[in-house]
């Protein structure tokens, strides 16, 4: 996991995610795993909880009950490094210096964040303070009455918005109808946050894309198993007119190489992670079902 930045942060968090449903948790998993200090504010009333049973999320052939799925999402976010905050966000505004954001919850103290990801399907009202161009909300007619709603086309497909540092995973017309689509949207936005952060820190454009992909260390051979070969390649990616001093450029290069080598796992580590993953799933299975399955296995043997 890469550390959050190459400089000390002036903010409480690198990323605040507003909403702990599928889109918000998915975004948080990516940003936190990458090393960004990430807080996910969740008041516990995600629209997902209105679903009686989740049937079309890939990987659960018989479907999965919403309570278990919600627990799995939050456990994943916490394991990745997110801080889950059980509070409702009332407003998001710019800091006095007009850099970053002040996130004001209903009960706790306000916190500051370098970037904010909105991930609440039904409610964007807390973003009103950022709508200086009156572009976030649109007026619709409901039974003869004009009502304002967050414009679900306000954000681009990657979640970026006209407000620097603000990303929207939800509300979004692209991702608000199915849980699996919402999770994918959140992941896309989380990756964009990482990519933008890398640009800010001075990473060359050729390597700002982040791919969270683990491989067997058996594939780490030949010239690309040599750190000096990576140094040569990365040095070639910096533009001739970059304005980084040698110390910072070297730090970026070595971080990139460290991260690359960390993505290769030994056979023992792959086995350990497989077993740990299955044990974690068991934590969310009813004990009586586990005992019954164990008895069936024992009887068959």
UniProtKB/TrEMBL annotation:
MF GO annotations: oxidoreductase activity
SUPFAM superfamilies tied to this protein: FAD/NAD(P)-binding domain
Pfam family, one: Pyr_redox_2
InterPro entries cross-referenced by the UniProt entry: FAD/NAD-bd_sf, FAD/NAD-binding_dom, Ferredoxin-NADP_redctase_2
Keywords for the protein's UniProt record, in alphabetical order: Flavoprotein, Oxidoreductase
Keyword Flavoprotein: yes
Domain FAD/NAD(P)-binding: start-end pairs: 13-120
PANTHER family registered for this protein in UniProt: THIOREDOXIN REDUCTASE 1-RELATED-RELATED
Protein name: FAD-dependent oxidoreductase
